[in-house]
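Chapter summary example.
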Amino acid sequence: MAGTIIADTIEHSDSTSLATNQLAAKNAAQTFTAGQRGEVTTLTSGSTVTPNFADSNNFTLTLGTNVTLANPSNCTAGQSGSIFLVQDGTGSRAITFGSYWDFAGGSAPTISTAANAVDRVDYIVRSASSIHAVATLAYS
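The structure predicted for these 140 residues follows.
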């Protein structure tokens, strides 16, 4: 039956067990009492980079050339995260964004170009074809 607890603990095949109150639910408001974190997935630099939003929420991309950050695959409304844009040791790399990326004021940012510069693009997916984004530039 849906929504019925049938045990006080859940046993896993590796002999670990969790109390049912230690499990996250997809259909309930919850308060986490310890830090939650998602991995930062590395994207491979190339002339066109297409993030797969099913892989992660957070990404890092070291620019080894001028890059087009294409429209991601697997966009789901409500997903949010960050993309760290890192200039390589040469710097002077530029980035353009696919049509799904929507920045305030209607213009994509001009990223930092110094060697090893770090910028961050924070995003939230509004719909399957609309990503609201904001850039914070020139981290040290």
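To summarize the output: The chain has a mean pLDDT of 90.
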